[in-house]
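Methods — Computational structure assignment.
A single polypeptide chain was analysed. Its primary sequence is given first, followed by the predicted tertiary structure written as structure tokens.
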Amino acid sequence: MTKRWALLAAAGVLALAGCSSDLPEDSNPGGGSSGSDTRKSEFFDQAEYDRQLKFRDATPQGPEGKPWEQMLEPEMVDTTKFAKTGGKYTLCFSNAAVDNPWRQVGLKTMQQEVKLHPEIGDFVVLDAEAKDDKQISDIQSLTGRSCSAIIISPNTTATLTPAVEQACGTGVPVIVFDRGVNTSCPVTFIHPIGGFAFGANGAEFLKEQVKPGGKVLALRILPGVDVLEQRWAAANEIFAGSELDVVGVEFTDGDAAKTKSIVADYIQREGEINGVWMDAGATAVAAVEAFQDAGVEVPAFVGEDQQDFLRLWVDEGLNAVAPTYPTYQWRTPVIAAVKILKGEQVPKEWVLPQPRITSDNVRQYVQQEMPPLHYAMCGCETMPGYPGPWK
């Protein structure tokens, strides 16, 4: 296991995707804390934090306008031993789950990407239903089939590592994406920049937009999930070095009604909230509605790239930013698999650009014809059949 892969063993954009891990001893699963916790999180790693923030300004290599094919500072690996001649490929995919809109958009995008490659004859998908034991069984099942390559989006990091290593041992090329594992045996690990970059993008925005002494409310989903902990660790680092007053850090469980209730309580308790930071934006609209229902101005806001929030942002003229964990990453494993099976080089760690949406460009991402929880960064708009499969 390389240090870099261990650091980047990420759980995915939403804790609701079914990921879990052991909680840190100082976690507070019961909910909020008053004021900013300036202690260093056990999930904070200075070197990786610096690396991810540097990646944000790196110039990607790859075709312009196709971020799912681009790569940041890649170290290419030889794949000639996996080259397959004659016949069509059987591409196999062990998926952690499809239990939230982000993963549903992603899978639809992946399925359409497969159709763009005539080299692929069969695409076998097994859904682990957010259960580690089922995914372990699924991976074992795939290693017994005639898979040309196996793509894995792990449900959790440590528990799935042995199953991934077992799959690597069969000689079939293994591609891991979205969430990491504690081994470097896969041919490539594909992911956007990471949780530190996401968290920092939101916190830096609030540091710029909220006056010194302003009150910030941080809304999180669940404790103990690697990528979400990284997001908060980065934000906490930036808030600790600012003059902002983090009046609360609350876990919402990703529930819209609970989110709205929490925000309403803080508005009543504090009298004024000047900024809202979120580690994932699925309930951003509910949080905004709490301010609207209270008849107070919506403060500077950190959301995400789902359509309901983007539309509200434009309609209400919000002061907002949307860090993203782009669903276009679901295209990349298919592209990587085809390259590997042709014996072409791929990055050992395939780091994808991780854009953010600002007031300057938000209108270009609003898609009125799409469902409210469709994610704008799907990279799917020019794919055949769009928008049909995504509706």
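Note: The longest helix spans residues 101-115.
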